[in-house]
């Protein structure tokens, strides 16, 4: 098969893997090789400074010995198959980089022959890129569950980020839809990468010239909606992964029915994209806003509100905490106010050292008053006469949303998307999801 035909097949096969993000690593080129890797990140996404950046995202092969029910490339599916060689991946990466098409490589793979055989090919590919072609740009690779740990470790010293897909939130879901995989096999390389990162940090404190092991950390992905887990179960799993494996990111991928199977659910409304969006918002709260999964959801209310983001919904259910006095509240309390992002909270903490803040000051700082006004006071006064009642605040927030939908008034409400250019550009201010 011609190389460009392989590229068409294997780049299309990789599009359902969303577990990629900005690099978070600051390794610069040494002036001898080609490329470099900076903290702003890559991956056909938006960096912290708002730039749109890209990488070559491909599978090494879509030939797979596993029969995961949700996967287009499962062994029982009749699809066009292709496999790269290590030299072909190197050729594509180098030529695309030289033409300024990409800034790095995201390499995943189906399981060809065996986990060890596949991991060996991935290692050989990355080794050639780094040593033969002297490529010093960003590389994100998938660790193959079940592969020999020495292969995973060797690859970790060449890659910037590694990831092991959890696939489904629970062991029961894996047993039902991915009979060739199990939770123990998936978590084993996760632990290996975590331990490698920890020991490498200790080594670097003594030997600064020591090679770095997965400097941008590790991530994972869960498919949402293919199995019956509720949002509370999913967020509990994510929280456990952050706490126990020091993950950089957990990615949530709405289930897309790309193949037919009696064990797969029917989706009359299409992929659960709003649910995916709410999970990302809640994930942001776990990582940056000091929330716990059990604060956002419970066994009694196991799923997120479709109308309000998780932070706003929490505030409506905990009105006894409000109103918050802006000039006295702690940083942790400010983080829980809808309309105040973590950067805005920091600015408030700094600004109020020099003067008492009013609502006009908050607007200049970046607080979204159309949401925050129901939950805060400045110098003991609210912006308007407001009832601290759930029904009253809910009606007003929904009315603001309806006015925007029909173009009424000057309300600037907007349904937020992780892939919206305006919102992503605002990530550097820390208010990207909860403005």
Strands, helices and their partners?
Layout: H1 3-13, E1 45-46, E2 52-53, E3 56-59, H2 86-98, E4 104-108, H3 115-131, E5 138-142, H4 149-156, E6 161-163, H5 171-177, H6 183-206, E7 218-224, H7 231-245, E8 249-254, H8 273-288, H9 293-296, H10 310-317, E9 324-325, H11 331-334, H12 342-351, H13 359-365, H14 369-372, E10 376-377, H15 390-405, H16 421-425
Helix pairs in contact: 2-3, 3-4, 4-6, 7-8
Please tell me about this protein's structure:
The protein is α/β, with parallel strands linked by helices and 435 residues long. It has helices at residues 3-13, 86-98, 115-131, 149-156, 171-177, 183-206, 231-245, 273-288, 293-296, 310-317, 331-334, 342-351, 359-365, 369-372, 390-405, 421-425; strands spanning 45-46, 52-53, 56-59, 104-108, 138-142, 161-163, 218-224, 249-254, 324-325, 376-377. The strands form three sheets. Strands 3-4-5-6-7-8 form a six-stranded parallel β-sheet. Strands 1-2 form a two-stranded antiparallel ribbon. Helix 2 (86-98) crosses helix 3, helix 4 (149-156) crosses helix 6 and helix 7 (231-245) runs parallel beside helix 8 (273-288). It is globular, with a radius of gyration of 24 Å.
